[in-house]
Structure prediction request, 380 residues.
Amino acid sequence: MRLKQRLTALMSVLAAAAMTPAAADWALNMRQGVTQTSQSVYELHMIIFWVCCAIGVVVFGAMIYSIVNHRKSKGAVAAQFHESTTMEILWTVVPIVILVSMAIPATSTLLAMEDTSNADLTIKVTGLQWRWKYDYVDGDAAGVSFVSSLHPKHNEARQLGSGADLGQFGDQYLLDVDNPVVIPTGKKVRFLLTAADVIHAWWVPDLGWKKDAIPGFINEAWTQVDEPGVYRGQCAELCGRDHGFMPIVVVAMAPNDYAEWVVKQKGAVEAEIASADREWTMDELMAKGEQVYNTNCAACHQANGQGVPPAFPPIAGSAIATGDEAGHIARVMNGKAGTAMAPYRDILSDADMAAVLTYQRNSWGNAASMIQPAAIKAAR
Prediction:
């Protein structure tokens, strides 16, 4: 009776779990994806899956038939296959035929996946702890460059922990970014993948592949999305403390919409360049600095600037944040070797770095000088 009660309880728990929102993410098969590559991989997977099922049915069927119909109680005598040329040929040729029939389409798919020639657009992807940087190398968006980080609202929610309202994010919690990478539909896009610190891996399941981003090395991949949409992924290589908060969002836009996006991005680039040559007010620097700090610094040094010593020292009252400007600029720009303090030279623009430095120097009881973007530009 006790066993029956336990089984009933177990079935109730499993049934309840199946009704939770998390169960919606359960998938027992590969995604078909939205690209020719992903669909080819899916079809290849299904072909080989059914081949394996057929082999399993034949092998286990033969075993069960032999066990039942050739058992000793029925007087069966074991057959002898020693030095049987026919059997040697069969168990050599049949596996070869099966393997070759699977290897030909697999090789064809792999060769197509590696063919990055004749691309319409090239995007350089750089993995950073813990965000992605995208540089548009050629095409209409050549010169556009930005860093993509976990969306500030998601970042704030994860720092709040159990007190956060996660329902507002639906099933996209920790899967949204502030700056998604945008590509045009119907165009072949080549990706050059590398990293600036440790090994990362750029993975968007709907595209049908993932590639490691390795410091000092460049991997290549490509995709072509034919329908507009938003496709999400994550870093797929354990890369450190915030590995789980390094999402990827790819937005595929129709050509006309993509052209409009390019115009806006180039306008933003020009505005960013111009911003480094003007004098900012303290209010402007503090407002922008708070945004930059919450996106890039708060995860380690905390929103109140108290840090988590000894790994993440406090900024409030620190000798660096209240001391010499040059030393503060150098620390944020170049990082500190042997610690989790990453260099932000290639992550933050002149205006962003000046703003976050000013915010650090004048928050949480700190009362130091303000730093203009021109000082950052001169220090690079």
User: Anything to note?
Assistant: The first strand starts at residue 121 and ends at 128. The chain is about 40% helix and 15% strand. Confidence is low (pLDDT under 50) at residues 13-24.
